[in-house]
Request: fold
Amino acid sequence: MRINNNGNNINYIHDKAGNDTLVVMFHGLTMSSIIYPFNELAKDILKMGYDVLRFDFIGHGESYGDSKDMTLEKEIQDASFMIERFRKGYKKLILLGHSQGGLVANYLSTLFCPTKVILLAPAFNIYDCVKNKMFFGKPIKEGKDLHLWNMTFTKEYFLDISDESYYNLNPFTKVIIIHGSEDILVPISYSINLKEKYSNVSLRIIPNSDHEFIGFYDELIKEVGEALNE
Reply:
């Protein structure tokens, strides 16, 4: 389904199990709400009895725009709109974000006071990437677009995502991080550092898993299920 946000169509799925808790899911770069692992996670979380809302960010899936139009600020604006639109009637709110979607979930936790935040391999390394002028192995050239993963990242994207406020964890909400030990896109050391820095963070490590938990879905859904229920 699609919903209009100030002229921009956002593709979304809202699955209802009749629960008083809404789990809102935020995918990462190059991904969407209907591909692995989000499609599988949404269906299994629904089977656990939770209502689930998932949608495609700007320039992803079937939502509006192109990758060159994307910034983290715009993702946050769309996510805020979706939460405000769909949370009515729910007693509890849980935010679940993967990779860059984890940055969105973390930032929004200060605005919407969720019951908990579940972060899957959250991309807290992006700040260092941009600071060091290297974005996942490709050099960032001043004033130039960067092409990677069939996407275009603009100078506006890099300027926006270098804002330090995106990387400050909310110290007042329970945060559960799930991370693969062999993640080369977002090294697990970043999640370990968050756990050591913040007392409200717990870390669940999936041995041998990569950034997208390929081949480790059973372990992933087990950890997500326990995180939802704890």
Notes: The first helix runs from residue 38 to 47. Residues 43 and 131 are 38 Å apart (CA to CA). The radius of gyration is 17 Å.
